[in-house]
Design brief:
3 domains, 606 residues, binds fructose -6-phosphate, alpha/beta, Glutamine Phosphoribosylpyrophosphate, subunit 1, domain 1, eight-stranded antiparallel beta sheet, Rossmann fold
Length: 606
């Protein structure tokens, strides 16, 4: 996730672009840059590894009437000055948010034609492609270039041959146009422009826009004009930064339709029935040689890791253990180089997880980090890294970073299963095509959140909650309990449902709601029995179940339906339900949702 902006008009371009970028820092802030055309007609480019304030400090006072800017959250290539946007080729400068899936093949082709690349980014191919097709009509050059591209993009394009025009385009990444008086703006999101105008055009997929000081014209990719409706935004700036949501947590829960998609982008190879992890750096032979996987993580990332254990064992047939970072570092681990150690940390800075990585390295193990933050400490310390690409998460409670971790674990387990000949191509294809549908399923859960909100309000007085699940649903039960206690301060326990009778059943009474994660699958009958055990003790049961499950309605007080998918993928959907349940409960209780007491987003101390 990155932020792009563009400005054309009589205002102070540099100041306006900097101010707009600041409003998009929530989308990423590891590097930043700007390209402007000065009053002599020269393109001036400024880039920096660091935040917008540092970018500001390197830009001298320049008078300019047009420019583009970018704040980056690295996906391809580390956060360095070379990789910061804009990327330029000849007269062309480009800022981009999204992922060009076929960038490697385009890059090879462009190199063979003599184009020279100076960054590791996917975006640089766009600049060269537009330059290649530029015969004097900038809009045509951009649409021709985009015709060769697979992937997602919101772009802003500037050329010092055309100082009176900015071109923007969108596919699967957000883009808006701000309409001013004798000035116009492009941006990834409304907060970027709200200080200057509240008149907005929402840009749809595969639209291309010519932005001039006194006109904005929108076209489809064939060059046909498109009529757009102007929207007036009534929010103030603070509300706009949360895109109108009352809390970052709710915004981030809703962003999961997008973030899950981003995590998968370019990685699903349905035709071959496999997963492409370019950055993994482990070949099939190396994958086959691992005897065991040890997963280390803390908190929510640990819960993701526990699901990883079930997936690696079930799908890829490889023995997997999971441990918390804080315990692992003081245990006496039995490790040797045949163990792959996977460390999961959204921040990449959690002290306990980092210590575990160091410990594993000292045993000669390969270490694979799964993190959301490009260039974080875990990236430097681990021998291999996969990025989750969920985008920055502001709410302390992990939501979209968790589901993106799950997606990476699904993809890894499928990839390992294929490499170890434990899964045939047909099964892999089927799972990958079901994975593609998950963002759509998540949308449906979000649309129907009313039932979850009612349920939260029904049990808001409860002092204790239980979350139960079996097998792959057990990690979701743990995560549901963690989310609820973290933001609503209600005591909650996540339990493997079969364990209830070994102690906790003593705590079950009519005052204790029990959330049962119960989609259809090989343990469905078992969880039904566990539900009966608790209803026999007068507990109220909230069941998260398949939308076509009529049976469960006989036993549960409330059923929260989730769309049908393959059994193995259901945790991706039930996770969203437990997040919403925690959110609405905390909302009823008027808790500090985005900043729960005693907690921090990144735990860099032991
Ligand atoms: C809970 C939460 C924490 C983190 C934990 C590990 O919502 O966010 O439990 O999961 O502190 O953090 P990372 O993943 O950054 O290592």
């Amino acid at each position: 996730m990155c932020g792009i902006v563009g400005y054309i008009g009589d205002g102070d371009t540099v100041t306006i672009l900097l101010e707009s970028l600041r409003r998009l820092e929530y989308r990423g802030y590891d590097s930043a840059g700007m390209a402007i055309i000065d009053d002599e007609g020269n393109a001036r480019i400024f880039k920096i590894e660091g935040e917008i304030s540092e970018l500001e400090s390197i830009i001298p006072g320049i008078s300019s009437r047009v420019g583009i800017g970018h704040t980056r959250w690295a996906t391809h290539g580390r956060p360095t000055t070379e990789n910061a946007h804009p990327h330029c080729s000849g007269n062309i400068c480009v800022v981009h948010n999204g992922i060009i899936e076929n960038y490697q093949e385009l890059k090879d082709e462009l190199i063979s034609e003599g184009f020279v690349f100076i960054s590791d980014t996917d975006t640089e191919v766009l600049a060269h492609l537009i330059n290649k097709y530029d015969t004097g009509d900038l809009r045509l050059a951009v649409s021709t270039a985009l015709g060769h591209v697979r992937g997602s993009y919101a772009i802003g394009v500037l050329s010092n041959e055309h100082p009176d025009e900015l071109i923007a385009a969108r596919k699967d990444s957000p883009l808006i146009i701000g309409l001013g008086k004798d000035e116009n703006f492009i941006a990834s999101d409304i907060p970027a422009v709200l200080k200057y105008t509240n008149r907005i055009l929402y840009i749809d997929n595969l639209e291309l826009i010519s932005v001039k000081q006194d006109s904005v014209r929108v076209f489809d990719m064939e060059g046909n004009p498109v009529e757009k409706k102007e929207h007036i935004i009534e929010w103030d700036l603070e509300a706009a930064e949360k895109a109108g949501y009352p809390h970052f947590m709710l915004k981030e829960i809703h962003e999961q339709t997008r973030s899950i998609h981003e995590t998968m982008t370019g990685r699903l190879h349905e035709l071959e029935g496999d997963v492409n992890f370019e950055e993994l750096g482990l070949n099939r032979n190396e994958i086959r040689q691992f005897q065991r996987i040890e997963i280390i993580a803390c908190g929510t990332s640990y819960n993701a890791g526990l699901l990883g254990k079930y997936l690696f064992e079930w799908l890829a047939g490889i023995h997997t253990d999971v441990d918390t970072g804080s315990e692992f570092r003081y245990s006496s681990p039995v490790l040797d180089p045949s163990t792959l150690v996977i460390a999961i940390s959204q921040s990449g800075e959690t002290a306990d997880t980092l210590a575990a990585v160091h410990e594993a390295t000292s045993y000669g193990c390969r270490t694979l980090a799964i993190t959301n933050v490009v260039g974080s400490t875990i990236f430097r310390d681990a021998s291999h890294t996969i990025y989750t690409r969920a985008g920055p998460e502001i709410g302390v409670a992990a939501t979209k970073s968790f589901t993106s971790q799950l997606v990476v674990l699904y993809l890894l387990a499928i990839h390992f299963a294929r490499a170890r000949s434990r899964m045939d191509a047909d099964r892999a294809r089927m799972l990958l095509s079901e994975l593609r549908k998950i963002p759509g399923h998540v949308s449906r859960i979000l649309e129907d959140a009313g039932t979850i909100q009612e349920c939260a309000s029904m049990f808001v007085k409860a002092e204790n909650y239980f979350f139960i699940g079996r097998n792959i649903n057990y990690p979701v039960a743990l995560e549901g309990a963690l989310k609820l206690k973290e933001i609503s301060y209600i005591h909650a326990e996540g339990y493997a449902a079969g364990e209830l009778k070994h102690g906790p059943l003593a705590l079950i009474s009519k005052d204790v709601p029990v959330v049962a994660i119960a989609p259809h699958g090989h343990t469905y009958d078992k969880i039904l029995s566990n539900i009966k055990e608790v209803t026999a003790r007068d507990a109220s049961v909230i069941a998260i179940a398949d939308c076509d499950d009529c049976e469960i309605r006989k036993f549960a007080d409330i059923v929260i339906p989730i769309p049908k998918t393959d059994e193995v993928l259901t945790p991706l959907l039930s996770s969203v339900v437990v997040q919403l349940l925690a959110y609405y409960t905390a909302l009823e209780l008027d808790c500090s949702i985005d900043k729960p007491r005693n907690l921090a987003k990144s735990v860099t101390v032991e």
